[in-house]
Design goal:
The complex is a heterodimer of chains A (114) and B (110). With 114 residues, chain A is mostly beta strands. In chain A, 0% of the residues lie in helices and 54% in strands. The N and C termini of chain A lie far apart (41 Å). With 110 residues, chain B is an all-beta fold. Chain B has no helices and eleven strands. The relative contact order of chain B is 0.34. The mean pLDDT of chain B is 94. Classes of the chains: A mainly beta (114), B mainly beta (110). At the A-B interface, strand 5, strand 6, strand 10 and strand 11 of A face strand 5, strand 9 and strand 10 of B.
């Protein structure tokens, strides 16, 4: 079945460091790809998305590129801030029964300290 | 525009008790979902609905029931709670692609 693998956390960085969180997936068909972020005590928020190969999603300084050949969607940010501390979820989505079925990874906790 | 709201935020139940979690959305979305989130795991889909009056089973439906009598509301019921149902429950809604999540309900079953 469809699945997603994220790098294990926690990832601990100093402010202004470069961030990469790896994500690879297996999916039937041609999924859309999403990164969601969960801040402490809150629900998930969509961070960015890409719907076709070579698309780059970006938001709040975060970027991820849809790599069909390697089935990957790695999340990057050039300079992290303390406020980026959160759990990040990679989620491929495939249309199933008329809706976008999301498969969530286990999440990667990011802790940024000053 | 409140987005997706969930009631209650916290609840403690004894084994065997029943309860209903309420999810409401004001975005006129057709699709609604209930997920559970457990430590070290991603979200797992319990049930979903593709429109008013419809429901369908997700990945982990056992022990739960749902109803969607109105388009804006999606109810999740536990008829006889078990400790294995201790979790954080999230509701979401969507049109086709992007799902919008509520703040969650933390449920503890003792």
């Amino acid at each position: 079945g469809d699945s997603v693998t994220q790098m294990e956390g926690p990832v601990t960085l100093s402010e202004e460091a470069f961030l990469t969180i790896n994500c690879t997936y297996t999916a039937t068909g041609y999924p859309s790809l999403f990164w969601y972020v969960q801040y402490p005590g809150e629900g998930l928020q969509l961070l960015l998305k890409a719907t076709k190969a070579d698309d780059k999603g970006s938001n709040k300084g975060f970027e991820a590129t849809y790599r069909k050949e390697t089935t990957s969607f790695h999340l990057e940010k050039g300079s992290v801030q303390v406020s980026d501390s959160a759990v990040y979820f990679c989620a491929p989505g495939t249309l199933s029964g008329g809706y976008n079925k999301l498969i969530f990874g286990a999440g990667t906790r990011l802790a940024v300290h000053p | 525009n409140a987005g997706v709201t969930q009631t209650p935020k916290f609840r403690v139940l004894k084994t065997g008790q029943s309860m209903t979690l309420l999810c409401a959305q004001d975005m006129n979305h057709e699709y609604m979902y209930w997920y559970r989130q457990d430590p070290g795991m991603g979200l797992r889909l319990i049930h979903y609905s593709v429109g008013e009056g419809t429901t369908a089973k997700g990945e982990v439906p056992d022990g739960y029931n749902v109803s969607r009598l109105k388009k804006q509301n999606f109810l999740l019921g536990l008829e006889s709670a078990a400790p294995s149902q201790t979790s954080v429950y999230f509701c979401a809604s969507s049109e086709i692609y992007e799902q919008y999540f509520g703040p969650g309900t933390r449920l503890t079953v003792t």
